[in-house]
Structures are given as structure tokens and as C-alpha cells.
Design a protein that fits this description.
With about 190 residues, this protein is of the alpha/beta class. It has one domain: Rossmann fold (3-Layer(aba) Sandwich). It has 6 helices and 7 strands.
Length: about 190
């Protein structure tokens, strides 16, 4: 594993116990903004699921009615431990799977998911192009990807990822339409 990924894994393993306390409100703001523009259904991949906070949000918002399964991926075993505990507490284990995985090389078959969500992840990867390519490979319909406002320099332009659908104080929320392939990112 390249050193940047090792450092990210180490950082999130260390902060996994306090992650929700530090970032809960910021993450919830992104979830609300994103889901005001799209209704999730079918199989969802949460690429970079962290502590499973998004799944808790979906459950509390009664937004799992049309969701059949959620695949939770994260590179940090510490985050995944917290996600597993949260999913058990929420009685969601029957409809979720937790997998330790690098989002640049997701261990899923082509078109495995109807939707992919990637909150606060794209700015941490080594290759944005590879990550977007993986999202396109595993997703049938749409992806929601957030990008930090402050991380826009020297990165793929937003138009190459998808269409901006919302914004928070810190993040831009982008909808990538995989079904119609009207994005520029893989070009």
C-alpha cells in the first residue's frame, strides 16, 4: 500500500473513536443537502463509509424504504469496527455488508450498485481518475460525490466529475450520472 494510503488509514484508525463527535454535524449537513436532490433505491455502495453515520442518517430519515442492500467500504479497520457496531445497534446488519477496501480498487463486480455515495473521500485519494473510473465501473445509475471547496486546486474540475447539485460551507455536492454517461471525467 502506498505511503499516502498508509497515512490516511493510520489517521482514521486513530481518530475513529472521536470521529462522530468531531464531524457528525458537518457530515449530516452534507447528507441532508445531497438527499434533498436524489432518492436512493436498490443497492447502495457507501465508498468511504467511516463509522456508518450515513446509514444511521438514512435509517432515522426513513430513507431505507426502497433500499435493498448497502455495501459499506472503508480503508480504515478502526472506522469499520465503529460502523459494524452502529449497524448492529440499528438492526441493519441484515441489509448491510462491511468491507475493508481501497476506493481506488473496489472489490465489487461491474454494475454491482444502483447508487454510490462518496462523502469526504475524493480529496483523499491518490488518483481521482482511478477512483472515478471505479465508481463508474461499479455503479448503474448515479453517484453522489462531495469535494471540499478548499481542495479544488490541482484536482479534476467539477464538470469532469458531474453536476453540482448543492453546497455546504465546506463542501460541494456533485451528482454523477453514470446511466447517461454525460460526464467528462473518464475522457
Amino acid at each position: 500500500m502506498p505511503s499516502k494510503k498508509k497515512e490516511i488509514r493510520k489517521k482514521y484508525n486513530i481518530t475513529s473513536s472521536s470521529y462522530d463527535e468531531l464531524y457528525r454535524e458537518e457530515q449530516l449537513e452534507k447528507y441532508r443537502a445531497a438527499l434533498s436532490h436524489i432518492k436512493l433505491e436498490g443497492i447502495i455502495v457507501d465508498a468511504g463509509c467511516g463509522t456508518g453515520l450515513f446509514e444511521e442518517f438514512l435509517a432515522e430519515a426513513h430513507a431505507l424504504k426502497n433500499v435493498s442492500y448497502v455495501i459499506c467500504l472503508d480503508i480504515s479497520e478502526g472506522m469499520l469496527r465503529h460502523a459494524t457496531l452502529r449497524l448492529s445497534r440499528l438492526a441493519l446488519k441484515y441489509m448491510t455488508e462491511v468491507i475493508e477496501s481501497d476506493v481506488e480498487f473496489m472489490p465489487l463486480r461491474e454494475r454491482a450498485a444502483d447508487y454510490t455515495v462518496m462523502f469526504t473521500v475524493i480529496d483523499l485519494v491518490e488518483s481521482e481518475r482511478q477512483t472515478i473510473s471505479e465508481v463508474d465501473r461499479i455503479t448503474k445509475s448515479h453517484a453522489i460525490i462531495t469535494r471540499l471547496h478548499k481542495a479544488l486546486r490541482n484536482k479534476l474540475s467539477i464538470s469532469r466529475i458531474g453536476k453540482v447539485i448543492a453546497s455546504t460551507d465546506k463542501d460541494i455536492i456533485i451528482l454523477r450520472n453514470i446511466a447517461t454517461d454525460d460526464n467528462e471525467a473518464s475522457r
